[in-house]
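Much of our argument rests on the idea that a fold can be written as discrete symbols. Part of our work consisted of pairing the sequence of a single chain with a tokenised description of its backbone. The amino acid sequence and the backbone structure tokens for this protein are reproduced below.
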Amino acid sequence: MASQTPIIRAQLLQSAQALCDAFASKADIKTLLSHFSSTHQISAVEHGLSVLAPFLGRRFIGRSGKSSVAAYFELLQQHLTYDDMSFGEWVVDEVARKVSVRGSAKFTWIEGKGKGQSWEEDFVYVLDFDQAAKVTDYQVWADSGAAYLARVGELSQLIESERKVSGGARREPKDDDQSDTQTLV
């Protein structure tokens, strides 16, 4: 069993990277679904309050229907577009058959009051896999506040107000060097 661990880890990582690459390249829904299990129930959930955006806070289950994984991807395509999507900091748990990854992209709301409002965002995926290294559960943690403000047409105004307050400089978060962390033994 231990000799299979590197193989399983490599398979999970390769499968996760393939799905993320397909999503980043704006592959069609059929292609995205090809990365999901055909032997297990599949699901997708983007965590957040469901009142903030139509694709948030609901569990999408199965391959077809109004509440399916395909419907989740359709909602994303209906409301958002994105550019410069990239993924890094992969964490593979071969025992649990999970891969977590941090992504980043520039998102733009493309319909309604918020049409054209954009923001840069970091997000996290947690992907669960079946024995064939196909996705069973797709979870996303993202900036639901930015999505909501863009949807209602208020994000650009808020960003512009922040720029005026900060003198036009964009405040970047600083990496935590852990210098203020104390190790207790």
Q: What stands out?
A: Residues 5-24 form the longest helix (20 residues).
